[in-house]
Amino acid sequence: MGCVLWLGVCADMRADDNSAEFTDLSGAIQHPLQTGTKAGSVLIFYWHDCPICNSYAPEINRLTSDYPNFAFYIVQVDPDLTVSTAKTHAHQYSLSPPVLLDPRHRLVSLAKATVAPEAVVFGKDEKVLYRGRIDNLYADLNKRRSEATEHNLRDALDAIAAGQLVKSQPPAVGCLIATSVAAVAAPTFDKDIAPIVFHNCAVCHRPGEVAPFSLLTYGDASKRAKQIARVTGDKIMPPWKAEPGFGEFTNDRHLSAEQIALFRDWAESGTPEGSSKDLPPAPKFTDGWTLGEPDVVLEPDEDYDLGAEGPDIYRCFVIPTKLTEDHYIRALEVRPGNRKVVHHVIVHFDTTGAARELDARDPGPGYTAFGGVGFRSSGMIGGWAPGILPSFLPEGVGRMLPSNADLVVQVHYHRSGKPEKDRTKVGLYFARGTVDKKIRAWPLAKLLLRIPPGESNYVARASLDIPQDLTAYRVTPHMHLLGKDMKVTATLPDGSLVPLVHVSDWDFNWQTSYVFKNPLHLPKGTRLDMEAHYDNSSGNPLNPANPPKLVRWGEQTTDEMCLAFVAYTLDKEHLTKNTNNESEQTSSKP
Fold first, then answer.
1. Which residues contact 396 (CB under 8 A, 6 or more apart)?
2. What is the C-alpha separation between 242 and 156, in angstroms, rounded?
3. pLDDT confidence of residue 433
4. Of 181, 339, 484, 564, whose CB has the highest number of CB atoms within 10 Å?
5. What are all long-range contacts of 482-485, with beta carbons under 8 Å and residues at least 24 apart?
6. What is the DSSP secondary structure assignment for residue 178, as one 8-state letter?
7. Paired sense of beta strands 70-76 and 40-46, if any
8. DSSP β-bridge partners for residue 527
9. How many CB atoms lie under 10 A from the CB of residue 424?
10. DSSP string, 72-107
11. pTM here?
12. SS3 sequence, 252-305?
């Protein structure tokens, strides 16, 4: 058979009589490359623990139902996937097409599949008629539109059914499929890769944690070597957005250029395991509460039910503290109830009753709010994101939590492809001994935002002069979906520049509070400067408006924000001496 070229894709895919025979999970024999009486065979290549794949499960089921003239198959590419685990997965996600296991990557090779979820459509004579994405829901890794605007696989099936040539075959976005390559002298897992994984990745990529799969063993990492090289090379993982060298942080998780190169070279050279004598001990993690048993554990009265698909949800849960007196908090720890769907958590407190009113107007537990909590918060006291471990404030420093305050726990949920439940808990640790200084949060903000439609590089700036000596502990940038980058600096009275943070590739899904390695003394007269850029053009795949529209400051999905919270204490404040009554008057300004 000749090689038919459509859009640069070689479609010569004939196998011998037996090479394409598979048994599905029910034991039935399947010949996925043979169309029989169908218009074509649709193979969707799938990693069972890839979040992108699983988010497509409902759409795959709809496609199977909407196009009965095509034979659909799900091809599981994980070489270690057992029939039992595959059956459990198929049941959890209600997968309707037959599921085929491809541990030796026979179908991967025949279809030349490289990504999951990638759809490959075979027609008569086992020719490839389409290879590409299901739709454009994902613009790239970690860049998910609110909904798909192009349905490429559906368009392809419509064209094939009508006997027409498929003209557009955009590449799929998802988890790369590793294939073996010739082994050459290269880094080994035991000596070179494991130390990086254990230090930078294992906090999330271990059983029971938020990451979709574990990376604690050679087998775990080797079968995903190409994907690891891709996401580390693109600096998608580990999720650290601050530019190296612009500020120093205790919670820094970025990889060096040398470490990124090690992952690439290891993947390209066949993932050699190395010698067990070089393998460092696996990291040990604390079960339960990282900081020990909290003084108070707070949680909603009932589970929150999250649907299988749809846009992300930002749900605020109002939890009365029932504290009869003021308390200083030295730490807060968040324990997500369902780490599969909890992306990050931000905890505020409310003394006005506004959160309760919003909760009462919204059916079910909690209420929905996007950029903030829907009202002027009395204060933000902590949060959680994957890879960020809780810690205690310095000795003698505390955060005031007034009596009878309500916690407002905003949880960012992303869908898993099947219905889920969550009940996230918050643990409070009271200060021990005497608190001499309050920690405060100062929002450096540009409130008068006016981002024109079509503007791809809108600039927003804000500055302020510090009126008294203070010590800064952390900085937390915040924008919405149009944000591109943000830089925050401090200019001391002598003119010297102190870098605070530079997020050069803003991602709303990976918001982080950057904790300074050494607290920064900022004397009176220091000027704080913030500069941020926004993309409100149609070229921004995350733009919630299509076509773009004028965007101003606001709480909603289609609004924007521009601020950086700076956590600080006042140098002259000494609560134990009661010598600075003026500092007690406000917690929003230094």
1. 433, 434, 435, 436, 437
2. 41
3. 86
4. 564
5. 482/451, 482/458, 482/534, 482/535, 482/536, 482/540, 482/542, 482/543, 482/551, 482/560, 483/508, 483/532, 483/533, 483/534, 483/560, 483/562, 484/457, 484/532, 484/533, 484/534, 484/535, 485/532, 485/533
6. P
7. parallel
8. 465, 491
9. 24
10. EEEEE--TT--HHHHHHHHHHTT--S-EEE-TT-HH
11. 0.77
12. CCCCCHHHHHHHHHHHHCCCCCCCHHHCCCCCCCCCCCCCCCCCEEECCCCCEE
Amino acid, single-letter form, for residue 18: N
Phi and psi at residue 300, to the nearest 5°: -65, 160
Tokens of 254: 């970025």
Please give the order of strands across the beta sheet that includes 342-350: 367-368, 313-320, 406-413, 342-350, 379-384
Tokens 């685990």 belong to 85
In the chain, % helix, strand, coil (3-state, to 5) comes to 15, 30, 50
pLDDT, tens digit (0-9, with 9 covering 90-100), for 110-168:
899 999 999 999 998 889 999 999 999 999 998 999 899 999 999 999 999 999 999 89
Cα distances from 95 to residues 1, 56, 307, 387, 417, in angstroms, run 35, 10, 16, 31, 10
How does residue 209 score in pLDDT terms, banded at 50, 70 and 90? confident
Give the span between the Cα atoms of 387 and 515, in whole angstroms. Answer: 13
Contact criterion met (CB below 8 Å) for 451 and 481: no
Per residue in 55-70, pLDDT (tens digit) is 999 999 999 999 999 9
* CB of 186 closer than 8 Å to CB of 269: yes
Alpha carbons 429 and 292: distance in angstroms, whole number: 9
12 has a pLDDT exceeding 50: no
Give the dihedral of Cα atoms 52, 56, 58, 63; nearest 10 deg: -170
Strands 406-413 and 313-320, sheet pairing:
antiparallel
**pLDDT at residue 269 tops 60:** yes
- 17 versus 352: the higher-pLDDT residue is 352
The length of the chain in residues reads 590
| Closest CA relative to residue 53, chosen from 128, 151, 137 | 137
Report angle CA 550, 556, 560 to the nearest 5 degrees: 50
Q: What are the beta bridge partners of residue 306? A: 420
- Helices 152-161 and 57-66 cross at an angle (nearest 10°) of 20
Radius of gyration of the chain (CA): 26
Mean pLDDT of 453-477: 96
Kindly state the tokens that stand for 457. 């590089």
CA gap 551, 368 in Å, rounded: 20
Residues linked to residue 524 through DSSP beta bridges, in sequence order: none
User: Do you find a cis peptide bond into 195, omega within 30 degrees of 0?
Assistant: no
- pLDDT bin (cut points 50, 70, 90) of residue 20 is low
Predicted local confidence at residue 45, as pLDDT: 97
Alpha carbon distances (Å) from 218 to 199, 281, 284: 15, 13, 17
* β partners of residue 100: 24, 75
Return phi, psi of residue 483, to 5°. -60, 140
Query: Which structure tokens are listed for 128?
Result: 């490839």
Q: In the numeric block, which tokens belong to residue 321?
A: 């503290």
